[in-house]
Design goal:
The protein has 525 residues and is an alpha+beta fold. It has 19 helices and 19 strands. The strands form five sheets. A seven-stranded antiparallel beta sheet has the order 13-14-16-17-15-18-19, sandwiched between helices. It has a four-stranded mixed beta sheet with strand order 1-4-5-6, covered by helices on one side.
C-alpha cells in the first residue's frame, strides 16, 4: 500500500543578488522598496508585489514585508477569484506567527480576511475581534466591524461560496468518475505510487482538501483515513453513500486504516519495531474499552511529541477503527515496565480481538456512528423559552462533543464542520398538548413528532442531505439534532414540514451560542 497525505507548502522564495539600497525589477532601478510596494498597492497591482517580494533574500523579508506579501495574496485572490491565494496568504502569515504578531491589528485583520473568504467565518471572527482589540486606525476598524457582522450573519445561516459539502461531494465523484479508468490503467501498469496518489487526490480533494488515504498497489481499493480527526467519519460515510454505480463497479472504498501488527517506523532517531514496543493495558470501567501505556526508549527522543508517536504506532498496529473505538487512552511510559505485566505492540490487536471482535462496533463504522450518550442540562430559574437548549431535561446524542461545546460556549467542532460545508444544528419546536398527558403519553407524542420530522427530511427531495444525531426534551421545547450536508436544502424541507405542523413555535439554530435562531413558522416572503 502507498500512503498519501496532502500538505500545501509556503511558496518558494526565489533568491537574487541583493543590496539594501538598490533594487531592480523589469530592468528598472528601485531606490525605495517600501515606496514602490506602496505604489503598486495603490494601483491594485498585487502580482507585482508578490513577484518582487518573493525574489528577495530571506534576510530581507521582515515581518512587515511578509505582512505585505500576505496582503498582496489576499488582494490577488479577490482580483482573480482564486481561493488558493487566500490559502497562501494564511501560510505566509502563519510563518511569522509569534506573541507580537498575534497582538498586531494588521496581522489579525489579514488573517481574518483570508479565512472569511474561505467560508471559515467562525475562525475569521476570532481574528477580527483581536483586530478591534488592537485599536486599529479608523478605516481598518470600520472594515473589520463590517466583516465581523457578516461573519455572525453567515455563521447563523452559512452561505458556502465554495458550495455545500453535498455540492463538493458531487463534484468530487464527477471528477473521479471521469478519470477512474485512467487511474485503473496506472495501477495495472505498475505506475509509481506518487503518480497514482496524485491522480486520485486530484479528484478527492474537491471534497476533502486535506486527506489521508491509502490506495492499493495491485487492486482498485482506496481506504480513507480520518488521521486522528474522528469527526471526519460521518463525512466519509456520506461521501461513500453518493458513490456513482459506474465507480462502484470497479472500485472499493472503505473507512479506516488497516492494521499492520508487525510494523516498523522511523521517526528520525532510529527504527521502532512493534516487536520491541511494550504495552501495559487495563480495562476501563464498564469493560467496553482499554487504556494502555506504551514504552520504547526512542519514543521519548526527537522533536515530535511522544504522545503523537505513540498514537501513530498504536493506530497502525491495531487498525484505525479498532483504535478509535476500543482504546480510550494512550499514555507514554517514561520507564520500562515489568515485561511479565506487558504484551508486545505486535500482539495488541489479537488481544483486543479476543476481547471485542464479537462486539457490533468491531470495525463497523455504521455501528460506531450510532453510539449514543445521555445528558441533561442543570435546571435554571432564569431560562426563558427563547434560550434554546438550556431548558433540556433529558437528551441523547451521537456526537457528545457538540453538546459539550455548546454548554461551554465553544465552537471548535462547528468550525471544523463549517470548513467542509457542513452544519451541526437543531430544530426546536413545541408538541401540542404535552402538558395534559401522562408520562407514557408524552414519550409517545414526542417520539411521533420527532419521527415525523426526521422521516420528512430523509425522504424529501430537498432534505435528504442530513444525518440525525440526537433528540432532547426540554421544559419548553422538543429538539431534533442533525448534521446537514446542505443546510439550505434541509431547512427548505423543514420549513415545508412546519407549515403543515400544528405548533405555535418552531425554530432552527446552528450549534453555536453566539448566533440567533431562525423562526420556521414565519410566512414566506
Amino acid at each position: 500500500m502507498w500512503y498519501h497525505r496532502h500538505r500545501s507548502m509556503i511558496p518558494h522564495l526565489r533568491y537574487i543578488p541583493f543590496t539594501e539600497r538598490l533594487f531592480y525589477t523589469n530592468r528598472t532601478m528601485i531606490k525605495d522598496l517600501n515606496q514602490q510596494i506602496a505604489e503598486w498597492h495603490e494601483n491594485n497591482e498585487p502580482a507585482k508585489i508578490i513577484k518582487f517580494l518573493e525574489s528577495l533574500p530571506k534576510s530581507s523579508l521582515t515581518n512587515e514585508r511578509m505582512g505585505w506579501l500576505a496582503r498582496a495574496y489576499n488582494n490577488l485572490a479577490s482580483k482573480e477569484d482564486n481561493p488558493e491565494h487566500y490559502e497562501t496568504a494564511i501560510r505566509v502569515l502563519e510563518s511569522i506567527r509569534d506573541e507580537e504578531t498575534e497582538k498586531d491589528e494588521l496581522w489579525n485583520h489579514r488573517m481574518g480576511f483570508a479565512l472569511y473568504h474561505l467560508d471559515r467565518e467562525g475562525e475569521a471572527a476570532e481574528y477580527f475581534i483581536r483586530t478591534l482589540e488592537g485599536e486599529p486606525y479608523e478605516s481598518l476598524a470600520a472594515d473589520t466591524k463590517e466583516l465581523l457582522a457578516d461573519c455572525y450573519k453567515f455563521l447563523a445561516f452559512p452561505r458556502y461560496t465554495q458550495g455545500s459539502f453535498a455540492d463538493r461531494v458531487k463534484k468530487a465523484w464527477e471528477a473521479f468518475e471521469e478519470h477512474e479508468a485512467e487511474l485503473r490503467q496506472l495501477v495495472d501498469n505498475g505506475a509509481s505510487g506518487d503518480e497514482i496518489q496524485q491522480m486520485a487526490f486530484s479528484s478527492l480533494k474537491l471534497a476533502f482538501p486535506n486527506l489521508a488515504f491509502e490506495i492499493g498497489a495491485k487492486n482498485y481499493h482506496i481506504i480513507l483515513s480520518a488521521d486522528g480527526t474522528w469527526m471526519l467519519y460521518p463525512l466519509f460515510r456520506f461521501f461513500l453513500s453518493r458513490m456513482p454505480e459506474s465507480v462502484r463497479e470497479h472500485w472499493k472504498f472503505s473507512i479506516g486504516r488497516t492494521a499492520t501488527p508487525d510494523l516498523s517506523v522511523n521517526f528520525g532517531e532510529g527504527v521502532i519495531s512493534a516487536e520491541e514496543v511494550l504495552v501495559y493495558f487495563t480495562k476501563d470501567e464498564g469493560g467496553e474499552s482499554v487504556s494502555i501505556g506504551v514504552y520504547h526508549p526512542l519514543l521519548l527522543e526527537g522533536d515530535s511529541p511522544a504522545w503523537w508517536r505513540a498514537e501513530v504506532l498504536v493506530d497502525n498496529a491495531v487498525g484505525e477503527l479498532v483504535n478509535t473505538e476500543f482504546v480510550s487512552a494512550i499514555n507514554v511510559l517514561e520507564e520500562a515496565p515489568n515485561e511479565e505485566d506487558c504484551i508486545k505492540l505486535s500482539e495488541l490487536r489479537d488481544m483486543l480481538a479476543m476481547l471485542y471482535s464479537k462486539d457490533p462496533r468491531w470495525e463497523n463504522i455504521d455501528v460506531i456512528l450510532q453510539g449514543t450518550m445521555n445528558y441533561r442540562f442543570k435546571e435554571r430559574d432564569d431560562v426563558e423559552p427563547v434560550d434554546l437548549r438550556f431548558d433540556i431535561r433529558s437528551g441523547t446524542t451521537t456526537i457528545p462533543r457538540l453538546v459539550s461545546e455548546f454548554a461551554k460556549d465553544e465552537s471548535g467542532l462547528m468550525n471544523l464542520f463549517h470548513r467542509f460545508g457542513c452544519v451541526g444544528g437543531f430544530f426546536a419546536f413545541d408538541v401540542p398538548g404535552l402538558d395534559e398527558m401522562d408520562e407514557s403519553q408524552r414519550e409517545a407524542a414526542v417520539d411521533a413528532a420527532c419521527s415525523a420530522l426526521e422521516n420528512h427530511l430523509r425522504t424529501h427531495q430537498e432534505g435528504n442531505c442530513v444525518d440525525f444525531i440526537g433528540r432532547a426534551v426540554g421544559r419548553f421545547h422538543v429538539y431534533v439534532d442533525f448534521l446537514a450536508y446542505d443546510i439550505r436544502e434541509v431547512c427548505n424541507a423543514a420549513f415545508e414540514f412546519f407549515k403543515q405542523y400544528d405548533t405555535s413555535f418552531a425554530a432552527f439554530q446552528v450549534y453555536r451560542r453566539d448566533v440567533d435562531f431562525y423562526n420556521m413558522k414565519k410566512t414566506e416572503d
